């Protein structure tokens, strides 16, 4: 329905509201409490991102600690560092400096107001949606000529097609109508990233470098190559790869 599970969640939030509201009306909650829930869902168009992130994390945790696996199970960033974890390497982090997001700023803000890439929401891309599913969400590129997200539907298709080159599988649960119902590219492989020189694409918000201001823009960013190089060195050492 036009969502990709990271930056655009309007349809998902509306569907969630459709399921939730009749149940709320059957409870003993006061009219005021139900009204507060309704206004929250009405005014936070990205509300469904929160359960999406939790479900993506749960799915990826199920794939951790698989011996010899080079599949990425976590990507996250804290405004200073960007880090990944790899299935066959357990809980070890492989980090590099967090990059700046190439994007469109809200009125009154510029790159001088932004901090480097920040947040846990790229767990969606790690699970194969978000930026990896941009082919499902042409509305994202509509605002994107200035963001680096791309200005056409074809640009969105190209980003998704590129991600097939660095992933292990296609997820049939997340089908892309614009690609003849191919499954989303899923399972980032450290070896394929290094062999092909293609980095995971993330569509994300831009955070301010001053606390308390909230989102100041949105755009695209790529995971740093150094994270994958460090992970491969550790993998080669652990598994005695020459």
Give an overview of the whole structure.
With 242 residues, the chain is α+β, with helices and mostly antiparallel strands. The chain is 34% helix and 21% strand. The protein is built from eight helices and nine strands. It has helices at residues 10-25, 31-43, 49-61, 123-126, 138-142, 153-163, 190-196, 225-238; strands at 72-78, 81-86, 94-97, 102-105, 118-119, 167-176, 182-188, 201-206, 217-222. The strands form three sheets. It has a four-stranded antiparallel beta sheet, sandwiched between helices. A hairpin with a 5-residue loop joins strand 6 and strand 7 (182-188).
Question: What order do the strands of the largest sheet run in, or round the barrel if closed?
Answer: 3-2-1-5
SS-derived structural category:
alpha+beta
Distance between the termini: 47 Å
Large-scale geometry: globular
Number of continuous helical runs: 8
Calculate Rg over CA atoms.
19 Å
The portion of residues assigned to helices is 25-40%
Strand content: 15-25%
Average of pLDDT:
92
The assembly state of the depicted protein chains is single chain
SSE succession: HHHEEEEEHHHEEHEEH
Describe the largest sheet.
4 strands, antiparallel
The low-pLDDT segments are 144-149
